[in-house]
Write a structure and sequence with these properties.
It contains five helices and four strands; from the N terminus they run αβαββαβαα. The protein is mostly helical and about 110 residues long. It has one domain. The strands form two sheets. The protein has a two-stranded antiparallel sheet with strand order 1-4. A two-stranded antiparallel ribbon has the order 2-3. α3 crosses α4. It is elongated and about 45 Å long.
Length: about 110
């Protein structure tokens, strides 16, 4: 039996971001000029996959926009507010799956 030696890595462990926090980080790579329509957001960022839970499930911005009630966003915060319910619905639907419940029973 062996033990791995400690690493010389002094960096803090990275946090797992999901939902709006992950979207915020990923939108930093894209340029969206506000005010923007849902169509403009789709063209610029629709391809972005946003993780919605620590298990790695994700939803694209395009999919989230399909269920959003707003079609015009004056700011990034308005976009986040409109997409948040879609992320939550998707997170809840995946957390209720049989496979997710079985994984929760396994200690590792």
């Amino acid at each position: 039996m062996g033990v791995q030696p400690p690493t010389d890595d002094t960096e803090e462990p990275t946090a797992i971001e999901f939902g709006i926090a992950a979207l915020d980080a990923k939108l930093g790579e894209e340029t969206i000029d506000y005010p923007a329509t849902a169509r403009e957001v789709r063209e610029q960022a629709g391809h972005i996959e946003v993780p919605i839970d620590p298990a790695g499930h994700s939803i694209s911005v395009d999919e989230a926009l399909e269920t959003a009630t707003a079609t015009h966003f004056d700011s990034e915060q308005e976009l986040f507010n409109a997409l948040h319910p879609a992320f939550e619905r998707e997170r809840q639907s995946t957390s209720n799956s049989l496979l997710t419940q079985l994984r929760a029973l396994v200690p590792f």
